[in-house]
Specification:
Arc Repressor Mutant, subunit A; elongated; mainly alpha; DNA-binding; homodimer; 6 helices; 177 residues; disordered N terminus
Chain lengths: 177, 177
DNA sequence: AAAGTTGTTCAAGATTTTCTGAACTAAAAA
DNA sequence: TTTTTAGTTCAGAAAATCTTGAACAACTTT
């Protein structure tokens, strides 16, 4: 897909093959998600899919995404799987149509919650036990170093605890509605 | 640098050239930061630098980092610049030594605060004005679509406001100390 | 059956990001 | 002045990531 520069003063020319049947509004919204995804280090294709589903009035099938975003089958399939696992997309049954249809999950709480969990939870779990082991490695160091490292380790422990405490609070702020 | 698999059951063999003069504790701590950086999509070399400064008892010069992390001059220079701009590293004057020395800034509030700001602030600024423009693009669409998109846009507006509101609270939770 | 849909998987290609090292500037020491 | 040291910059190499498309599986329709 090619969501070119956008912005108000859009002086970009659609690339030759851009038969993309996307409306200007759609392009702009998708562009917004692409930018956001970039900030989170997430792949463009995933943002495109989510963006189009987000603006779309009705559920879309993979076919449609492939065609309208001018994207490969592989990317579409993988991207949808990723979004589904994340809980950012839901499947919808459309009577009389064999294809699976998708809609964007648009509740900030769910989105951010699952994303944060996916990104951090594993971490916290591991860090704690890892720090225990690290503490054991300070044997044959000078007293000064030993002391300093002990301090660093307890600092890391505090950071971890803070992280854990912050999460539920964050979720509450995002989800009250 | 080569912080190999680590963990308790470390069955990895140091690669041939690893004359790295790193202590096991250092390796483990650095490894921790590398993992964390990976979750944030930050380059490994930056994590290595911050990690070594974090465990180190005393300020280190670029030279030392290059040697101990077995890293190129370019990476060290750029990495230090990045960390300094972020406020994650501070320079220290060491009497009788011409070289600049560095220490890790280890206050969660400062670190997270600046990082969040760097990652999000620009965004929020732009998003708002962008949404105004997008609203103007819905002219020649069906009533249904127009309505749906209007809803989506106001949803995005709410998300943005939430984001803005969350930041200061977050900072407070991270920084009380 | 055979032919057509819908969708997944994955090796190879394309793209992006990161790292390196040599060339360079600036300043201090000899 | 000349030489050495400290540090930056940036083009190209190396590595990591993302995308594609062809092969395939499973299931419907003809």
């Amino acid at each position: 897909m090619e969501v070119f520069a956008g912005s108000s003063g859009n002086n970009a020319v659609p690339p030759e093959s851009a038969h993309s049947s996307l409306q200007p509004v759609e392009i702009e919204i998708i562009h917004l998600f692409i930018q956001f995804a970039a900030a989170l280090g997430q792949p463009r294709s995933v943002a495109e899919i989510y963006g189009l589903l987000f603006v779309s009035d009705k559920p879309l099938a993979m076919d449609t995404l492939i065609e309208r975003l001018n994207m490969s089958k592989g990317s579409a399939s993988q991207g949808l799987k990723y979004l589904q696992d994340l809980g950012a997309v839901r499947t919808i049954y459309v009577a009389g149509d064999r294809r699976t249809h998708y809609v964007a999950v648009a509740e900030l709480r769910k989105l951010a919650g699952r994303y944060l969990r996916q990104q951090t939870l594993t971490h916290f779990e591991e860090t704690d036990s890892r720090l225990d082991r690290i503490a054991a490695l300070t044997q044959h160091l000078s007293e000064d170093q030993k002391k300093h490292i002990a301090e660093r380790i307890s600092l890391l422990r505090r950071w971890e605890r803070t992280g854990r405490r912050v999460m539920p609070f964050l979720l509450k702020m995002l989800g009250g509605e």
